[in-house]
Design a protein that fits this description.
- With 367 residues, the protein is of the alpha/beta class.
- It has 13 helices and 15 strands.
- The strands form three sheets. Strands 8-10-7-6-13-14-15 form a seven-stranded parallel β-sheet, with helices on both faces. The chain has a five-stranded parallel β-sheet with strand order 2-1-3-4-5, sandwiched between helices. The protein has a three-stranded antiparallel β-sheet with strand order 9-12-11.
- α3 links the parallel β3 and β4.
- α1 crosses α5.
- 51% of the residues are buried.
């Protein structure tokens, strides 16, 4: 990881648009800890610039002439692994490819500047993401991913979940793949799941749809007023905070666009604080890889309310920021590597006051 005693983070910008290259370069150059060492208009030129300039971080467009960004990323991570931040168009196709890039090894994804989403609004966030990417863990162990478990009969699923149980998950940099590796292991019929992943607007829906295709239960982007039920996971929309509230016979979600928390919207702290108030000791919370400290204070509230809390360990995190903050605050009951988080959360469900009946818990563990 770069430190103040070392040279600045060297960045190479790869984008076929001269305007975008200029905007990103000018924005990043305002940060004294970052040095833009060069630009490239396509992957072939980028290949030569990487050899010549040895950058620490690459920003990468997806739709480019001669070779698309996803193909280049796959080749790059095979032969010269390095931190890459994808800057993607906000079209449906761009969102899908951006998620494909995360699966192929990109550290982060941001919305490409347009007339509707200027680099000015992105500037500070981009610099933070670049510095976090420079310290990304590229030697982390690869989680063992098991195939999704077949869904149990709907009546059996709904009969074994107490209405007060709730699972809340928070993640940022590296979180899309971390969450996917955990959720795809789980069977249907679990308590309601609420997820806040730091992700730009326009990409969160594609992320939820991807999870829905991987999981044995339903996953979708949350809509204000949605009712959380067993066998359903809701993902906070990009640019909206998500809260959970107990309505008397179940949980529902509320969305808002109040000011960002820790420069984030959605913020994990917002979700965790609301879960502490509405679910308390009936909740299980987990915080995954990500930069910054978002989620730590909310996890402290959850633990104080009697919830069971877990955090991803440093070795398996892409960026050990959010979990570190929660651990240092003393807000974590258990720290686990990513490949044990799924089972760890299922075990934690059995610790809640409204745990599954013993026979169903055994079946879950066996799954």
């Amino acid at each position: 990881m770069n430190s103040p005693l070392r040279s600045r983070v060297k960045v190479l910008i790869v984008d076929d648009s001269a305007v975008v290259r200029k905007m990103i370069s000018e924005s990043l150059s305002k940060d004294p800890a970052i040095e833009v060492v060069g630009t490239a208009v396509d992957p072939y030129i980028a290949r030569d610039r990487i050899k010549e300039l040895n950058p620490d971080v690459l920003t990468l467009d997806i739709e480019m002439p001669r070779m698309d960004g996803l193909t280049f990323l796959k080749i790059l991570q095979q032969h010269r692994p390095m931190p890459v931040i994808v800057i993607s168009s906000i079209t449906a196709a761009g969102s899908k490819m951006a998620l494909d890039c995360l699966a192929a090894g990109a550290v982060d994804v941001l919305a490409k500047p347009t007339s509707a989403y200027s680099i000015g609004a992105l500037g500070e966030q981009l610099a933070q993401r670049v510095k976090a990417a420079a310290g990304a863990n590229f030697r982390r162990p690869v989680a063992t991913v098991r195939a999704p478990v077949a869904a149990p009969p709907p009546r059996a699923a709904s009969g074994r979940v107490h209405p007060r149980q709730l699972i809340v998950l928070g993640a940022s940099t590296g979180g899309t793949e971390a969450l996917a590796s955990v959720l795809r292991e789980w069977p249907d019929g679990l308590p309601p799941i609420a997820i806040t992943q730091h992700i730009p607007a326009y990409f969160s829906k594609a992320f939820a749809e991807r999870l829905n295709g991987l999981c044995a239960f339903e996953v979708r982007e949350a809509v204000d007023g949605d009712v959380l039920r067993p066998g359903l996971a809701l993902v906070a929309p990009g640019d909206y905070h998500m809260m959970v509230n107990w309505s008397g016979d179940g949980y529902c979600v509320a969305l808002n666009q109040r000011p960002p928390v820790h420069h984030c919207r959605p913020a994990v702290d917002i979700l965790f604080h609301s879960a502490a108030m509405s679910a308390g000791r009936h909740a299980v919370a987990a915080i995954f890889t990500g930069m910054g400290t978002d989620g730590a204070l909310g996890m402290q509230k959850l633990q104080a309310a009697g919830a069971y809390t877990l955090a991803q360990d440093e070795a398996s995190c892409v960026v050990y920021g959010m979990p570190r903050a929660a651990v240092e605050l003393g807000a974590v009951n258990k720290v686990l590597p990513l490949d044990e988080m799924g089972e760890g959360i299922l075990h934690a469900l059995q610790r809640t006051p409204s745990a599954f009946p013993a026979t169903s818990a055994s079946a879950l563990h066996a799954a």
